[in-house]
Amino acid sequence: MKNFFRSTGFKILLGAVVILLGVLIYTQSVGNSLIANLINFVSSPMQSVSTSAKENAASALEPLTDDPEALKEKIAALEEENQEYRKQLVDYYDCQRKVAQYESILGIKEKNADFQLVSASVIGRDPNDVFYSFSIDIGYLDGVSQNDPVITGDGLVGWVSQAYATTSKVTTILSENTQIGAAAKQRRESGVISCELRLADEGLVKLGFLDANTKIEPGDIITTTGLSGLFPKDLLIGSVTELGHEEYDVSKYALVQPYVDVKNVMDVFVVTDFYGKGEISVTTDSASSEGADSAKKTKTGDSTSSQPDASDPDGSSQDPEGE
Q1: For the chain, which has fewer Cβ within 10 Å, the N-terminal or C-terminal residue?
Q2: Helix or strand holding residue 159 (H, E)
Q3: What is the pTM of this model?
Q4: Cα-based distances in Å from 153 to 21, 107, 239, 266
Q5: pLDDT digits (tens, 9 = 90+) for 46-103
Q6: Distance separating alpha carbons of residues 46 and 49, to the nearest angstrom
Q7: Rg (CA), the chain
């Protein structure tokens, strides 16, 4: 036991007890100030943040305490500013659309320098028209005439079936009145583009009167022949999707997917003049295409139209302006 009190471990323990007693005595002498200081040290940053938040909230709510008339003036000024921004946004979209139109015009003119084009926008569609005709915002005061072709940079859309002073009605290639001479140039074969309700619903047209041994295949590009003078030559129409046999004869037909989505097109061009307009050109393998174009214009109600006389197979007696 005596050795324990003389050991180093006892001395260390005794020193720790003395230090602890000293701390307790000091704490009692200064009261709770040490603890309070520790709490204040920890909470001080939080108090600073709270004070800053109160000041910011007061600053944000300060305008609400202003005079009501001043508030009304501020609101009116903000509304006017918003209206100006909306106008600028509309102008931006309008400019964007015009730029796209000009790019299309340049692309078309590069390939067809003889085209006289007038740009137009779709302003109305008849929801009851199952063949998707529409109205555009230009008319005969802008140089538009009945039967003028209507196109986009992607291809043929239809033709002007009625021209008024400042507006026109466009009949699309999905119409049952469609009869357009067309050809697959790579196959050197021609036929007649037509449509019917079932195909119009699917957004397709039909290239008919093909030979039973036709070489046309899916993927072939179909363009206008331009033989009747009603449409320019080589206007893109669409591509072949499939072939089939006619029900009542031995000929074949091809279903064609138009390049232009005529159901949703918004901006178009009217071709008011082009090289060969109104001039009839007949070849042996495409007389049916010419007659089909002539029939189409007769159906659309051209007051000057006349069909070729049955005794005049080359159509030379036909009025070239109303074919």
Answers
A1: N
A2: strand 155-163
A3: 0.62
A4: 98, 7, 16, 12
A5: 566 566 666 665 665 565 555 777 788 888 888 888 888 887 877 787 777 777 766 7
A6: 5
A7: 42
